[in-house]
Amino acid sequence: MSRPEPVSRESERSPELPVPRWAVGVFPVSVLVAVVWGPAQAAALCGVAAVAVLYATSRKPASWHLAGGTVVCAAGVLLQGSSSYLVVRSGSLGPAGQPALLYFLGLQVFTSGRRVRRAAQLDLSASRRHRAEHGLLKSAEPPGEPRPGRRWIPFGATGVLGAVVCGLGSQCFCLALLAARDIVTTDDHPWWGPLAIAVLLVQTVVLIGMGNTILRTGAQYYDTVISSPDDLAGRRYVLYLRSFRDDRRLARPHRIPLVGAWLAAAVSTGQGEEERIADALSWAGPLVGVGAPGERVPRAGARRMYLPLDDWQTPVSAMMRGAALVVIVLGKGAGTLWEIREAMRILPPERLLLLVPMKERAYDEFRALAGDLAPGVLPAYRPSRALSSRVRGVIHFGPDWAPEFTALRRPSPLEDQLVGSLDRAMWPAMVRLTALERRADGRDRAA
Q1: How far apart are CA 224 and CA 387, in angstroms?
Q2: Which of 33, 100, 166, 270 could form a disulfide with 42 if both were Cys (CB 3.0 to 4.6 A apart)?
Q3: CA-to-CA distance for 411 and 420, rounded, in angstroms?
């Protein structure tokens, strides 16, 4: 292992965030808003854009960036809500498509704020700072090559189509609000009015779900894939292993409280949990996983490679040896149990991390199914205040494979709940892995 390069003064500073691409369009959009609505709304738009650009380009601490991104996201949500309010107040979709323009403007503002929040969350990571102090945090291009045939699906076309379909869903929601207002404020309404509202609400969920699916699928078509395990030789990466049956659950965004995960997956364009796991593990390297056989496009998060069904254990074992860190998501299945036993057989304890995406009862069933995993034994479950994520805890190993279960704790309200909690839960494992890599580097220098 080569000696890590010393940390420069530039790398000690918070990374400078680029000017958002949408900033150049603030002035013409403000002029359009001033013509359609008036100077007050245009001034408010310019103020929101100025705050967004300020926080996206200044050298403020990460917490300021996080707060600024949150404010911009809230402004985007308010703009989208204002479009529905205008429809209800005026009793129509409005002249010149004002609500539709406001809705798409709010969506763009929300998306930009979310990008600022993600960059700030990574900058806030204590694990990344610790690695940078020891010269072990190196930026690396994600491995892989463009997916074959991806240009048959133009990314820009899928983005426009997905946004249009989402806009149609928003219009259905506005029509449902108008119908509900007429029923509440008038006594003379048809008997089928409530049924029409229910149909419009169903169409809202279906159309927005279709639009978001188009957006996500278009992005996945443009993701890269790894053609062979040999492409990882000499590169730093984190091997991500899990049961294929958990892919769909971990690809969904966080649950919406009191509603469920299915609606969150339908109406949310937020990051899935696997993408958040990749962000939380970025201090160790890019996330690499084996793709499920037969899937049309790779899911967002880990870079996928595809292995033959009859001979997958040999390349997985080889990738374990070359990985900086092996992360296994617990799940029922013979493949997961083999992966855990194989990792314990060939890896030092510092290079293995287990994620627990289950509650206490399911975890106890998994422990009974797994038996004694020599040389280590799975520890007892440690309950905590449940997050909205499916990942509930982290298992890491000390010397002589002594296991420790760390339950996820809620971070500060402004942070991404899963990324922030994983960053704290993985701190002991990160410190031990950093010490292991520094000892290996010392031996190389001595040799």
Answers
A1: 31
A2: 33
A3: 6
pLDDT band at 405 (very low <50, low <70, confident <90, very high): very high
Q: Which residue has the tokens 């083999």?
A: 338
Helix axes 334-346, 360-370, angle to 10 degrees: 70
Q: Among candidates 66, 64, 71, which has minimal Cα distance to 47?
A: 71
**Tens digits of per-residue pLDDT, 62-118?**
777 787 777 777 777 777 777 777 766 776 666 656 777 777 777 777 778 888 888
Angle (CA) 62 66 71, round 5°? 145
Q: Looking at per-residue confidence, does 40 or 198 come out higher?
A: 198
Model confidence, pTM: 0.74
